[in-house]
Structures are given as structure tokens and as C-alpha cells.
Amino acid sequence: MSLRPELPIGVFDSGIGGLTVVRALLERLPHENILYFGDTARVPYGVKSAATITQYAAQITDFLVARRVKLLIVACNTMAAVAVEAIRARSPVPVLDVIEAGAAAAIEQTRNRHVGVIGTLATMDSGAYEQAIRRQHPEITIHSRACPLFVPLVEEGWLDHPVTRLTAEEYLAPLLTAGIDTLVLGCTHYPLLQPLLQEVAGAPVRLIDSAHTTAERARQRLAEMQLLNPGASRPEHRYYVTDVPQRFQHIGERFLDRPLNTLEVVRW
Amino acid sequence: MSLRPELPIGVFDSGIGGLTVVRALLERLPHENILYFGDTARVPYGVKSAATITQYAAQITDFLVARRVKLLIVACNTMAAVAVEAIRARSPVPVLDVIEAGAAAAIEQTRNRHVGVIGTLATMDSGAYEQAIRRQHPEITIHSRACPLFVPLVEEGWLDHPVTRLTAEEYLAPLLTAGIDTLVLGCTHYPLLQPLLQEVAGAPVRLIDSAHTTAERARQRLAEMQLLNPGASRPEHRYYVTDVPQRFQHIGERFLDRPLNTLEVVRW
Q1: Which residue, A241, A261, A244, is CA-closest to A11?
Q2: What is the pTM of this model?
Q3: CATH label, A99-210, candidates 3.40.50.1860, 3.20.20.480, 3.40.50.2300, 1.10.8.60
Q4: Over the stretch B91-100, which tens digit does the pLDDT of each residue have?
Q5: Which of A135, A161, B18, B55 is the 20 to 30 A CA-CA neighbour of B165?
Q6: What is the CATH number of domain A9-97+212-265?
Q7: Gap between the Cα atoms of A39 and B186, Å rounded
């Protein structure tokens, strides 16, 4: 399969959270064509079994590969945690994922070697961040915590609300007591809570937003492969979803920070 | 299609919430055979589009009808709100649903004719409770509010937690200001929050748990049709799910209030 710079980057997620990765890509790589796939009919993946998550991830990989992409980005922590090997095995193009990127950034940032990681139940149960970090730096201690209420709080729009603050205080308490100096936001919804989480965690704790680190790795990788789009024509951004849920447009635009056009519904 | 008392009752939901209806059935109708279907791979329905919800509901109806049931109970407010006509059109056996039952109980209970209804986004947006109540009593004023955080709070197990109390205070405030004397719990997860919601609402407000009212209507309907199982043999209870999510057993048993056996996974 010959890859050309004009081919799009394929980005996929279980729902709309991955739009935070698209937003970071648009900032860094404004000339790239992008195909986004959000499995909004079957979201959330975070509470499903590994077998089901892997089956869905394979189906989405095939869909995007068939549409000729030059790079695949797994913008869903849950799929990255559970199914990245299955995705790599099916994909003829390079695959980047948010966990790999977040883990690398955490290793770079920590000074005291106590790193906190928060995410969905499935991501935390998988131990994927621990493995990704310890593979390179076995001396780092990881303190992890599943935060299943953060996604619905973000979708409710309670980004700076007493309920969200109280929830964050409860979820983060054990990590802060353990003395972390770095906190990985291991779910693509969480960047929207970044200001509140920074306040609850305190200024000395560095927050790692894996949307940004993933976009930066995509730029590096494309540059290495000489596949950066030179940008002669106007880039195309297409958004495929499996359902258009209540409030999708509204929530999606909050994630993307711009209008969400050219939405196509795929019925599976 | 000839119906016999030994045939099971089919109960279905988008996930595990409908187990609160099964629990109420087991209390009132201990001799009945029950088939439960929970679409745990595709839960939650509450945020999906009406077209998708209707398609899923039809698929589950066909599945249960093919297994010979004598009565179908739609134990999911979202499906009852959006797809009950499609379900009735496909079903050769009588269909009961939680909205019909909850609306009838609210009409019976209210004295001041100000009724509150809470549920998921899809249920509230459908206006199904309003229609079901106004069809019989147009002079009743309905005050409704979507409470999308209650389901994740129940699943987190924060049934009596400061975060849940603060959330309930915010959600219920406009209904209480409006002077409701009756509050319909329009989602099968909510009965687990009943003690907390009763405290927040105050003792004079009557809470309607539609699991109980639905089970009572099932008993009446089977008696009218002379289809109550006399109970010679030990009843069988089978639970079909489309996925076994994280913590399913634990959460399911909290809903059912007894061990969850004979679980079968259907892969769609």
C-alpha cells in the first residue's frame, strides 16, 4: 500500500471524546485531511468487556482502512488499553494511540517519580498505562484511579460546578495523599475538566493532556515518514458517527471548539 | 398463538435497570417463569436517537417472542417512551410498559394535580409521561426534568453520598419550587435512590416507583387472562445479556437483591 501526503489521517473513538484529539491536530497540522469515526450508537465502551471492545475496534479499523488513510490514531483510551494489538495487526498503516503518547509525556514530566493516572473503569482495569510507563521506567510508582462519573459530568456540561468539584476531590484524594507530581488525564473527555482538576490537584501537579501529546507525536511521525501534507488545497474534515444522539451537535462543538460540519451517519 | 400459564414473562431493558422490575415481579408473582433481556453491549439508550432505539427494541422483541413468552414487559423507560408502538405492532402477546404503569399511579396519587417526572434525556424529550398522564387527566400539570447523572451515580454505588445529594438538590429544585406533591421515578435505576430522593423531596411528596406499579399491573393482567402460573414446578429465571460488562454481577445483584444466576450472553 503506497501512502501519499494527501491521504487523510484516520482518528477514532467510542464517541465524541476523540474530538479533543482532532482539535489538537487542527491546531498543529492545519493542512491535514482528517476522517473521524465516533461509535456514538455503542458508546460508552469504558464499561464493556474486553472481547466486545476488541470486536468493535476491529470493525472501525477496517472501515477507516478501506477509506485509505495514511495514519490511524486511536483517540479512545479504552480501545487503546484493550485492543491496540488487534488494531495494529489489522492495519497496513502506522497506528498511534493516546496511551502510548500519555505515558511518554508522564515519564518526561515527573520529577519525584510518582505519577497519577485517571480514566474509565476499563482503561484502569487493563493496567495499560502502568505497563506502558513501567516498560521504559520500572522505578516510577503509578497511582491509578477509575473516575466513572467524570464522563457524564462533562456531558452534562458541569465543567465548573460544585458537584464536579466534590467528585474530583473524592476521586483525587488518594493520589494527592500519595504525593504525585504528575497526573495523566487518561480519557479524552477529561481535558474539558482541566481547569477544575488543576485547582483540586494544586499548582505543583502537572496535568498531562494526552490529546496534545498525541497530536504532537502524529506530527513527528508524519514528518519522519515524509507524509506531512504540504497544504496546497483546502483540507477536508469528515465526521462519521453510528448515531446522532441527543445534544450531539452541542456537545461535539464544545469538544471540537468549532462548528461540526459534514457529519455522516453509518448504520451498522 | 395459544398462550399457556407455564410460559414465561418476557422482561426487557437496555441494561440492568430492568432488574428492579424483575425484583418486583419475584415478590408479587413468585411462581412465574421469567426471561430477562438486558442489552448491556449497547446500553445506555437514553442518549441515542429515536430511530436507533426503535431498531434495537424491535430486535429484542423478536428475540423474546421467538422464545415463547405469554406477556412482554418493557422495563426500560427510554424504549417505552420512544418505541412502544413499534413493539406492540410486532408482538403477538400483550405488552405492558413502565410509563403506562407509572402514569396511572401518578394520576391515582396526586391530590394537588402537580406531578413531577424525572428520567433520562430521551425519556424526557419524548414527552411520553406528559402524554400518558394528560390523555386521561388533562387538568394535571406536569413538571419534568432530565437527570442524566443519576444512572452513573447509581452504578458508582453512591446511593447515599454527598455528591448524589447535591446533584438531587439541583435537579429537583425547580420541581419542588413548583409545588409537586407526587414524583414519578421515570427510570428503572432510580428506585435505588429512593431513600435519598425522599429526603431531598421531603416527606409530603409521594414517590412513584414504576417497578412496583408495573409488577402489579402484570399480576392483574395475567389474572384477567387466566394465565397466572399455578406454581406446580420450580420457576425458571433466565437472564440474557449482550455483554458482561465490568462489575455486572455486582451491580446486577444490587438491583435484583438476590444472586444473579443462569446468565447467558447473546452476541449480536
Answers
A1: A241
A2: 0.88
A3: 3.40.50.1860
A4: 999 999 999 9
A5: B18
A6: 3.40.50.1860
A7: 27
